[in-house]
Amino acid sequence: MKKIITIVFLLSTSLTFGQIKNGSFEMWDSVYTNTYSADLTSLFGVPNPIGGIINNWTFDYGYGISRTTDSYSGNYSLILHNWYSYAYSGITYHDSLSYRPQYLQGYFKYISGGVNGVSQGSAKVTLTKFNGTANDTIAAGAYQFDSTVSFSSFQIAFNYISALNPDSININFINGNHYCGGGGSYMVCNLLYLDNITLSSSPLGISTINSTDNLVSVFPNPSSNELTIQNNAALPFQFILYNSLGEKCSDKIVSGKTNSIDLSAYSDGIYYYKFISANGIIKTGKIMKQ
After folding, report:
1. pLDDT winner (highest mean) among 60-64, 192-196, 250-254, 255-259
2. Which of 97, 102, 178, 279 has the lowest CB atom count within 10 Å?
3. Bridge partners of 153?
4. Could you tell me if 187 and 160 lie in one domain?
5. Are residues 170 and 284 in the same domain?
6. pLDDT digits 0-9 by tens, 55-99
7. 110 and 251 belong to one structural domain
8. What share of the chain is helix, strand, coil (3-state, %, to 5)?
9. Same structural domain, 130 and 239
């Protein structure tokens, strides 16, 4: 019997200093219940959302920041979200730094919503050095977060423009760039989840055990009324399909060689899926229904 692929994204680093303080968002200076806590649950099914102030991180507006127990690891993750007609809720991080990391890495998921269901989150990182009168940029990097309903790894490579070592790091995360709108039908929207933010000198890697190409495949893409799942491992998998708002549309066990999913009742648009085996998630992706 073939063993199931196990995919592990490594956020490893040999560094023992200069890591991001509270990059796992486990420590909060204070937490409080507000209107947005209920909205996050009722509109998006977020478990245990609560507003708060994050230890070691700062923000411009606190209304678009929430803690949740839906995390990649540990007890909590952070959600940055829009609220009513206010976009660009974000957080920043500033600390000293005395070496040259190569990457900023972490895990995220992004649920877009509201009247305009298309949006993106973003990240910007700058390494600087004080020259006596001003801060010179030593390196910089950026990233855009596209929609995904399950936690995925991300990596920002630093582009060094100076041979000097930096003395500080500045990180800025921003959620969606579209308003919620809708005359109150959407109080919150564009949820950017973040967890396990760290610095590294090594790129993300993938480790496979008894790798088997195309363990499961989904076609056609784009699709119209029927989706076919090809199960080449002949093992049972749980198949879950979500719409662009993160709402679960289908949840079934696929065990045969070929399986069909009826899409005729679903609206046209982008859908996201994941396959889960007894050992955990083995594949995620997205399809277009048209």
Report:
1. 192-196
2. 279
3. 107
4. yes
5. no
6. 999 987 778 999 999 998 889 999 999 887 777 789 999 999 989
7. no
8. 5, 50, 45
9. no
